[in-house]
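Meet our chain:
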Amino acid sequence: MAITITLGIQKGGCGKSTTTGILSYLLSRDGYRVLAIDMDSQGNLTELLSEQPSNEFVGKSVLEAMQHGNINDYIVPIGENLDLLPANNFLATFPRWIYTGITYTGDSIPFSGIPSLILDHCLDEVRDEYDFIVIDTPPSLSEQTTNALCASEYVVVLFECSNWCYSAIPNFMDSVIGANQHGNRDTKVIGILRTMNDVRRNDAKAFNEMIEEDYPDEVFKKIITRKAPVGRLALYGFSDNSELKQALEQYEGFYKELINRVERK
């Protein structure tokens, strides 16, 4: 039975898609069977892992998988141990479909059930086929984010060391509590990952210390700093990338911490 982990925070520019892609890659590299799910209509995780434009997956994405209740037909093989359930900009129509039954094509597919549990129920079809399911989320407290949280046992909260991200944390933590109360997965935060750290800025250092004081048991020890090879990962991808080792090296510490926490729990 797969362990499902969502990465999220309702603020953009915090490294969610990059971290989700790297975590999926590292897990698959170590022999775990991994399904990466893109629940963000920007499709950044899709483009990172598939190395194709997200528009290539119109009609063949997580949106259609949820609307038709059939995930297997929409899974895209990426590597030996890594599969992808892709997204594109039409995922933004997900709430409209839930509440009106009308898809982006104008077709009618009536929905009945609990809106926040659509993805969770769909994943029951494939949970036995994977060791880990890793979900990327949009920068909002949306139906996509709620579905991801309710489908997950664990949540990694992304914290970009800034005032706006600091103020976003309490609301996101409340969303995780809501998923725990109303979902079926006993959803809980497994850690807060401090990302996009600029070592030249004193305010960044201060916010990193503040979040550690507020959540001493949740923060990962590893802090991800801004590195050019990580930024260029979206350009060069995971195959034939001469900078890959440099891009991955600081995430290895976070990865080991995460695996240790999952094993302890």
Remarks:
- Residues 3-264 form a domain with the Rossmann fold fold (CATH 3.40.50.300).
- Strands lie at 3-8, 34-38, 76-77, 82-85, 132-136, 154-160, 188-197, 219-225.
- The chain has a mean pLDDT of 94.
